[in-house]
AraC-like DNA-binding protein (Paenibacillus favisporus), 770 residues
Amino acid sequence: MKQVWLNISPVFRRFLMSYLIVLMIPLIAGYVSYRTSIDVAEQSSLKTSIMTLQQSKDLMERRLAEVQGFTKQLAINQDLARLMTARSDEQNYDVYGLWKMMRDIASYSQTNDFLSNFYIYLRNSHLVLTPSTVYYRPELFYESNHYEGMTFETWKKNFLEKSNLSMVVPQHDYVTKTHQQTVVTFVQALPLNSFDTPLASVVVLIDTKKMSTYLSGITDQYGGWAFVRNHDGETVLSEGITGSDIAKIRNIPSGKPGDISRAVDDMLLISIRDELSGWVYTAGVPKSALMINANRIKNITGILTAISLISGLVIGLVLAYRSSAPINNLINSLKKQLGLELSTGIQDYDFIAGNISSLIASNRQLEQELHNQVPLIRDAFIKRLLVGEFYNGEELAAASAQAGVNIKGDAGYAGLAKINTYGGSDSRESLAESSVARLIVRQSLMEAEPDMLVTDWGQDKLAFLLLRTSKLAPDEALVIQRLQDLAGTLFSHYHMPVQFGMGRPFEALADVGRSFGEAAEALDYAAFTDEGGVIRYEDSSRDASLFYYPIETETRLLNTIKSGDGKEAMRILEHIAVRNFQERELSREMTEQLIGELKGTLLKLLDQKAGDDPEFTENLQCRIAQIQPFEGTDRLLGQIGEMIGLYCSMIEEKKNALHHQTVRQVKDYLESAYGDADLTLYHIAKQVGRPEKYVSTVFKESEGEPWFDYLERLRIDKASELLLNRALKIDDIAERVGYNSAHSFRRAFKRARGISPSMFREAAELGDSH
């Protein structure tokens, strides 16, 4: 094996070792990443468990707070206050008061399942009042509703006569006539400020099965258990574990900051403390459940590492061969050229380095030649700018930096200078004279305007570009005057007649091509009229021999039609007609060519949209083919305009279909999410997958009202239906239909219906009774 390794090319061995070293770097990084991912997965699972327990704690405390709020509402109930303070001999006759109180408290069980079983003890009359009946003696009540193993006297002393302030009694077996259950008891003495002897006591019996549902997130997700202890260490509630098993657990975290989780045997213990009540919520999660994601990462990482290692070795061998083979061939070729034997013991890299050094040393002039190419690059850049080959600012900035040209503004002038003496001859003397003439004109232009960009444009022409950063109107006359003076100077000093063609000023770099094309047209016009000096495009004759249809106009027409803007497309078509048939007198051949170009534009449009509607495309292609250039200009333009209108109508129909679909999606979403108080245009746009401004504009155009007015009307309609249910409070209805507060709901309802929600409910009930 060692002999085989030594027989391999040294270059191949070096490349292979390099690739193997490079391969080891990502493997080491992958291992570190793997360990980090394992730790992150464990921490993530722990955070998720703590978050789940925290959510269970918050939900349960919220429910208990609602129970406490229920007792506070009873404390301010005027009917109950009269019953508590009435004398015992009068209480026996206040049957209506008791019946009304029973009816009022019966609805509370519908809003909170913790309030499904409760009673009120009235001390002055020894009555026990429940939502369904009245017990005239506590003994009668306790016979059919009592705690397992607790005497009547103990119950009466601790629950009825003692001044309890939001006391929570841990879980205890409770027996009724029909069944037995385990309950957690909440006791509140009334009035709330009764410190010695209360006038009444409210006792709420909460089924532990209902409370346990809030702890089931831990048990269902991880297969663990959970329990709650009060500040005295008594177990208030448990899920998935018995009291005897709880007593066996050691090292339970206290739930204080810094002592939230501990690992005990194969379990992770998590505790959260409620600082207000002093309750501690504890959960036990099996470590195996927490490591599910970590084990998955471990398995995937192992498989990927093995695949990467094998693939890396194969790729390393292939790349080492591919990289070393050309070098070996180069070395062998050099040795043959130098008459050396292939097996000579020359160091490969030293051999190549020596030969390349001599090659570089003998070609120092290469750098100078590259430097000499800069003027050519500059001229090429100016030519591209003049013909409008740059389509975005990034491309223009990169090309200008490469050419060393400083673009000082977006506005300016483009033109052509023609030297009339040196054209049409290809003799060596004539070419030399024309080169000298172009150099003189170039230097004169740059002296007249130092910021002017100048380049050769054929044997007898120079193109020039003058950029400005401000408005052009005050500057145009000055530029033309300088060119006029320059033409006179060149003729008087060198007997060199020079004509300058000027296009219309441009306000953006995208219009440079248009302005330069106009300069060429102006110069062509000057060739027929023998005019000298500066010839502006505006001064050109109407009887131009060529038609007007520049590429930028065609591009603008195509984009306008594709956007469905038929009005703007017809305006561009009218502009083309005016420029060709009113400002010019085109020959028959030029007219045919113009119509052919317009037909070609329409065919380009159909090719780009060929897959949308084959039948429409085929019909339009047939109509384009039937256009003949001998039917009269007005008729031809009318036919082309009609086809443009058909295409724009098709685009508009697709837009309208998309608008209707979007509006339908928005309305469907509002129907399902009107109860979300945080609903905004951002959520709606995200749901339907469209921009916010588009959704807002399209909805208002389609429905005749903003989306938020539609949403408010929808919410008020839903609230009107819910108000017919007397069991629902107005505050709850406001929350259900998406209002943050009952006050804002009442204002919105009155604005929409003209009356308040309570008056609407009363009117509806009055109508039902009639």
